[in-house]
Amino acid sequence: MFNTSTSGSENSYDAILVGAGIMSSTLAVLLHELDTDLRLLIVERLSSPGLESSNAKNNAGTGHAANCELNYTPIQENGDLITNKAFEINKSFEQSLEFWASLAEKGKLTPKTFLNKLPHISLVFGEKDISLLKKRFSELSSHAAFSNMEFTIDHEELKDWIPLIMYGRNNSEKMGATRIQRGTDIDFGNLTRSYIKQIEGAKSIEINYSTNVQNLQQDSEGDWYVSLEGEKNRIVRSKFVFLGAGGGALSLLQKSGIPEGLSYAGFPVSGKWLICEEEKLAQTHNAKVYGKAAVGAPPMSVPHLDTRWINGKKSLLFGPFAGFSSNFLKYGSKMDLFRSIKTTNVFSMLQAGLDNIDLGKYLFNQLIQTNEDRKKTLKRFLPLVSPNDWKLSIAGQRVQIIKQTSQGGVLKMGTEVVTSSDGSLAALLGASPGASTAVTIMIEVLNRCWQERMKSSEWQNKMLELFPSIMTDINSNQEALLAIRKRNDFLLQLV
Ligand SMILES: Cc1cc2nc3c(=O)[nH]c(=O)nc-3n(C[C@H](O)[C@H](O)[C@H](O)COP(=O)(O)OP(=O)(O)OC[C@H]3O[C@@H](n4cnc5c(N)ncnc54)[C@H](O)[C@@H]3O)c2cc1C
Known about the structure:
It is a single chain. The radius of gyration is 23 Å and the shape is globular. Helix 1 (22-34) packs parallel to helix 6 (188-199), helix 1 crosses helix 13 and helix 2 packs across helix 16 (478-491). It contains 16 helices and 22 strands. Strands 5, 6, 7, 14, 15, 16, 17, 18, 19 and 20 form a ten-stranded mixed beta sheet that branches. Strands 9-3-2-13-22-21 form a six-stranded mixed beta sheet, sandwiched between helices. A four-stranded mixed beta sheet has the order 1-12-11-10. With 495 residues, the chain is an alpha/beta fold. The site of flavin-adenine dinucleotide has 41 residues, from helix 1 and strand 10.
């Protein structure tokens, strides 16, 4: 494919991480914490880190802990609530907090630059949805993880929780809400940059910006050769490659030729927000308020009204409004989707398309929405607020996974780590719950691809230092859960 003989020892690394978003930067910090001598190369096609999906304005900045996202507790046809995903996500987010707390304790992260405490609220309208919300409340709040959840249908209490949303509303309107005060808003762009800042001065770390990973190929010894195109074109070599390229990961996975990646395909969903920077309004709302998704809508299109802190400035965000663009990256190419279609995945794509007609209809309707239509949706949340205070902003691209299963091609809404059988390559596909669970996902990458080192007492001790609760199932041990939350809140100034 390409001439690997040009790769000398100066081009040889212990790990090559593609992309400088939240995923690769999390993995880079973890690896550096575990062994400062590991030679790491991070390659980013843009001019600085965290500019794609991880950038604050390209995502909603919710620290997803399943506090308020109704799609994490779906209802079965028999009316039962499925709660295991909510517990899994809650635990995983606690692991992120634990990691940031340990780095803050070492003086390597400043929590205030990316993390703010913010109530997480679920809000529904009408008797039917109120009774579903109440069911969710009773099931979740009986467990330690969600025991601090509150429920109300009282307008006076709602005026206290969400004054801006209640302003000008008829008292007879049936509304129900739950609240968890220990929620967060996160500037994942700033977090990515803080991670990079922590490691960029180290002798063992090299970061190449404005450099595109063009191709990669494994030789018979198991080494990966990666061709880079940038200021200086070169071929670099490593025993381990991580494809943390966001929407760009699928095409690189396909180029790697590993059999585990051949049947995957991607379906891009673009997003738009309405953003309000009016200081008076921003000061009147202090929560992330998640509603219920429309029929046929992908779960990540749940409408929500969020307080955001971006670079220390408070603003409001409403959305997302989904759309369709064939780009796999916000700063990508319209050809991305078409180039990803291969003989190995075309049938999965067709089947997933046929099985998701509702999604297609939903996206089409979103696509033809005008600004006026969007502002009407906003009015459902904020009856008396002037839509003119809100500006449309383009969010990041999400590339949903289409996976070949025994039932054929299936569209998946989550994230998935794909690894080669020899553990020399890992790729991260998909987008949700995304950045909030990056730490857990990267520990999974280490467990799969750095097995021997992860089993060594040296790395186990370092993991225990970074994650004091790693050996405990905090979902079944209430005392341990409360102890770790107390530690994390203190170190992250969330008290
Ligand atoms: C609309 C929207 C809302 C979201 N809301 C939330 C939320 O509220 N909470 C949450 O936790 N998550 C949220 N997410 C998900 C979250 O943003 C992503 O999961 C996360 O940012 C992905 O990080 P990443 O590092 O994989 O990708 P990215 O941040 O996209 O980084 C990938 C990097 O790889 C680079 N790259 C790509 N191809 C190449 C190449 N060939 N060579 C070199 N570099 C390359 C890109 O330039 C980019 O910088 C949201 C996402 C979207 C789109």
